[in-house]
Amino acid sequence: MKYQAIIFDLDGVICHTDRYHYLAWKQLADELGIYFDETINHRLRGVSRMESLEIVLERSDRTFTEEEKLLYAEKKNEVYKELLKQMSPKDLSEEVKQTLDELRAKGLKLGIGSSSKNARFILSRIGLEDYFDAVCDGNCISRSKPDPEVFVKAAAMLSTPAERCLVVEDAKAGVEAAVAGGMDCAAIGDARCCEQAAHGLTMFSDLLKVAAD
């Protein structure tokens, strides 16, 4: 097989936490008197927490200190983590779990490459706490996507050269990060329109065919 390892983005690929992010950012924005809607929230996909905060604060008519920004980012995250407690193994679709099991049975290494600092907590909530061979998340990196750092480090954790890794992403920034890291990318969801992706997935299980080529 061309690929020895598959590195997955977490949110929007393995599971979906967009709604919880939106509700947490919305609560913070409302408290600060800043307009925030789902269109603005869409710009935050695949972006780090602090960069997301900067986007949320764009509509404010005041300037915030770095200390205030750190405080607000942590406040948002606390709300988000409380919302994540609602997640359970039911939030992991049968299609995704079955596909992961079949990929593993083929001998492929499986990893996570996520900008989220809550990746391990989310994995524990959906029953995949010890499932992946490597988890590289926001706690391991200093630069978020489209910088390739998260995928480069994930590949190193998997002891697999970049050219033998396939990244699965649902955001343009993630596709760009994979390509910048010298890896092929299989794009799903909104990222399917990204020309840099080597493969387009209509559904998650399409990965089985890609991995078999």
Please name the defining characteristics of this protein.
single chain; 213 residues; alpha/beta; six-stranded parallel sheet; 6 strands; globular
Question: How would you characterize this protein structure?
Answer:
This protein is of the alpha/beta class. Helices cover 43% and strands 12% of the residues. It has nine helices and six strands. It has helices at residues 18-32, 38-42, 49-57, 66-84, 94-105, 119-125, 149-157, 172-180, 207-212; strands at 5-8, 109-113, 134-136, 165-169, 184-188, 199-201. Helix 6 (119-125) links the parallel strand 2 and strand 3 (134-136). Helix 3 crosses helix 4 (66-84). One of its GO terms (molecular function) is beta-phosphoglucomutase activity. Substrate binds at residues 9-11, 25, 44-49, 52, 76, 114-118, 145. Mg(2+) binds at residues 9, 11, 169-170. InterPro entries: B-phosphoglucomutase_hydrolase, Beta-PGM, Beta-PGM-like, HAD-like_sf, HAD-SF_hydro_IA, HAD_sf, PGP-like_dom2. Belongs to the HAD-like hydrolase superfamily. CbbY/CbbZ/Gph/YieH family.
